[in-house]
């Protein structure tokens, strides 16, 4: 426990960020492949609504799960640290949940396994989200955030490789489960928490009922935290509108999955190719931003990215041509990678209470999970729109996504505590 913590060296950033990498990998694989699993289990006209409801069920839990786990870790005292035991337990449970999802043969089984995965992920990542705030000095947070976002996007590239290379869904989930354990072990080996004082016996722990209302609302007393939370909510809403339904969009609307003359043959390959474009350009963007965010400023960077991402989604929504979609994905990914680098640093800048860092970062994480409730419900509207006119539901969803990206990034300009 007395070992050094933060080190401004590549091995420290990469080692502590390893679980961030695999978290992105597992969710990216899941959001690309699980809609296709659902489509095999339900009638064609109801697949988006059914998939959306599964996502919404998990998102309801994720609205409080990360903050609750973060709150518990803020008050945990063990010889292994405050956050690390949660990461170890959560990672093990997450791998079990992934194996169950790989065997899902009914919609009910899939929904239960998905909820189990969401809970397990919250156990690990709720406390883990406080890593930057806990250990990285403020003048290095832009760099740390940039590296984490680059790892997130590189993970998506690896996810595409796993999806194309293994083919069978059960094997893909097995591979991700194994990588999940390996990355957790690496992070736990590198991430040494600073010593924390023992709680005096007479102090005890705060009663959980008092946590439920006060601790949840307390960070929102800060205007900056409110703006950052709302901005991230809107950007996440826009992102999930695309990610959740792009596989079925390619299946239903893009009748020729041809990329510069190469026939990709099936929707899964098309979705993976588009994801690869976003991830490759996003990794480049986040790598550039890692050096610039601390000097140029978070707000200006995010504002520019908002305009680029919103503009890129308009032709994506209106023109079902796969080569165009791929090119647009490259532009979108570059801006999204830069945005991610700036957004994590911005969130760490505006946390109101150092003593509740993990809990407050968990509440910030809820700005990413809460939109999944709405995007899940949107699946019903997508199916309804498509019944009125083929593709109309997808077009409306993607144009709404464009508006959400732009609005969210512009709201960041109201933040005062960061530049």
Automatic annotation (TrEMBL):
Domain Major facilitator superfamily (MFS) profile: 12-419
Subcellular location: Cell membrane
Membrane-spanning residues: 12-33, 53-73, 85-117, 144-164, 171-191, 229-250, 271-289, 301-319, 324-342, 394-413
Lineage top rank: taxon: Bacteria
Pfam families: MFS_1 (PF07690)
Main location: membrane
Membrane topology: Multi-pass membrane protein
The protein's name: MFS family permease
Organism whose genome encodes this protein: Armatimonas rosea
